[in-house]
Amino acid sequence: MSADTTTSAHVDPTLVGTTATRAERKGRRIPWRFIGGRVLFYAFTLWAAITINFFVPRLMKGDAVSAYMARSQGQLTPDAEKALRIMFGVDQSVPLWQQYVNYWDMLLHGNLGVSISTGMAPVGDAIASALPWTLGLVGFATVISFLVGTSLGAVIGWRRGGRLDVFIPITTFLGTVPYFWVGLIFIAIFSTTLGWFPAGHAYELGVEPGWNADFIGQVISHAALPMFTIVIVSIGGWVLGMRNMMLTVLDEDYITVAQAKGMPNRRVLWRYAARNAVLPQIQSFALAIGFIVSGTIVMEMVFSYPGIGLLLLNATSAKDYALMQGIFLVLVLAVLIANIIADIAYAILDPRTRQTEA
Asked: Which of 19, 174, 274, 298 could form a cystine bridge with 154, CB 3.0-4.6 A?
């Protein structure tokens, strides 16, 4: 058997005669130039976000020290107030540009400041205690809703006009219902009436946290209702988006050619149709990471869940600007990292990105 015959045996027959054949032969080469350009773009975005994060609290009326002095009812001396302003980086005797430089110096040393609303605890410690709860609950629920919704949307789009289309209006309607309303319904039914799940908190009061079966079981049972709430409300968008993209992809010529070649329907569905239809979903999934905090504040209030959304709400009420800045910074980093990962996955899955670099 000749070398040309051996090479052609590994080439997708649906790509023969197209520019994608060369990309197929070269393999899934990582597009470093594309990735490098995106990293530079996100580095600039990070600088802009940190700069805005510094200036916005200083443009607002009042500050954390003034709010703290008001709550103390004049029990602190002027020297104590000055010391607090120096600690929080809002000393009016220091020029604004110097405060900006000091803020960057703190960030580069991993110092996010001190939180007034958490008893003068470091901002990093306050965020570290709340972030795992949000990531564990909302992050897991977002992944589940993405996987289930995308898979269901792909099947519904493939079998368009069938009985599965009934899921589209149902999931779309559920997606229009606010988080808190679905949460309250779940509490009324599954907690108050049936008593299957706890109504709130992350675990029972008085239980010592630890890696043991009792604590882990309580965490799972307390997270069940809020997790179901997020999945039920958010799954409709993934189903509808994937189904619409499948309808577009199924009209492409390469799908017709693949079916004419006699390929199994399952392979055409997942290897060709779903693989191309899922690309916009990946970008949407990265954007959904940014709503993990902002989209679940009310939900965490309903279930009294000790996540970062509830922490942000408390920081806003107390005008705890240091804690607000720290949470916003973590949110920005999460969104940027998620988008970078999505861009890399997009470049690997889409051969046209590799062809553009070549």
From this structure: 274
Look at residues 88, 102, 37, 113 and name the one whose alpha carbon lies nearest to residue 328. Answer: 113
The token pair at 151 is: 């898979």
How far is CA 175 from each of CA 163, 189, 214, 240, 269, rounded to the nearest angstrom?
Answer: 20, 20, 34, 10, 26
Per-residue pLDDT of 1-21, as tens digits, reads: 444 444 444 444 444 444 444
- The secondary structure of the chain in percent helix, strand, coil, rounded to multiples of 5, reads 75, 0, 25
Query: Which residue is listed with tokens 């994937």?
Result: 242
| pLDDT surpasses 60 at 175 | yes
Alpha carbon dihedral 23, 27, 28, 30, in 10-degree steps, equals: -90
CA atoms within 13 A on the CB side of 167: 25
Domain ranges of the chain: 127-357
Average pLDDT estimate for 325-334: 84
- The DSSP code for 273 is I
Most confident region among 7-21, 118-132, 206-220 by mean pLDDT: 118-132
Tell me how far apart the alpha carbons of residues 96 and 94 are, in angstroms, rounded to a whole number: 6
Number of H helices, E strands in the chain: 20, 2
| Amino acid identity at 286 | A
Q: Annotate 135-192 with three-state secondary structure.
A: HHHHHHHHHHHHHHHHHHHHHHHHCCCCHHHHHHHHHHHHHCCCHHHHHHHHHHHHHH
The two three-digit tokens of residue 58, written as one number: 């200083």
Q: What is the 3-state secondary structure (H, E, C) of 71-118?
A: HHCCCCCHHHHHHHHHHHCCCCCCCHHHHHHHHHHHHHCCCCCEECCC
In this structure, CATH architecture of domain 127-357: Orthogonal Bundle (1.10)
Q: 318 with 57: CB under 8 angstroms?
A: no
